[in-house]
Design brief:
single chain; 132 residues; alpha+beta; five-stranded antiparallel beta sheet; two-stranded antiparallel ribbon
């Protein structure tokens, strides 16, 4: 049975950086508002979010439900259908999104400081530095 899962321990503090990270992952069409209903496969498990990627707008993954991000005091929390994580997006979706989020933050910092962004992969670790 499909159900929405929330990732409270992995929140995104800045909405603009979250949108940039989603765009980096190919999710360019988003709906923004307050407590918008998520359209899911299981109509009994209704959820709401403030930033939504509608499943009809994502052609590459054939999602079963919308992907949402609910605003909380600690930031935006991902709300994703568990079957989409298992079969469509991959279980590491939130981790990949976090990596792109941190990279977007580093790009913003590099631009602000007038530096350049240097990305370096060491095994599974990606180091991001700003060079002046």
């Amino acid at each position: 049975m499909s159900k929405y899962m929330s990732f409270e321990s992995q929140s995104f503090a800045n909405g603009e950086l979250l949108l940039e990270a989603l765009s980096d992952l190919g999710f360019t069409t988003v709906t923004q508002g307050k407590d918008l209903p998520l359209d899911g496969w299981d109509k009994r498990n209704t959820r709401a979010a403030d930033i939504i990627i509608r499943r009809r707008d994502v052609k590459t993954h054939h999602l079963l439900a919308d992907i949402g991000f609910q605003k909380t005091p600690s930031g935006y929390v991902a709300v994703v259908d568990d079957m989409d994580l298992d079969y469509r997006l991959g279980k590491n979706f939130v981790v990949r999104l976090q990596n792109h989020y941190h990279e977007a933050a580093a790009r913003r910092m590099a631009k602000k400081l007038g530096g350049t962004l240097i990305k370096e992969r060491i095994g599974k670790t990606v180091k991001i530095r700003v060079k002046f």
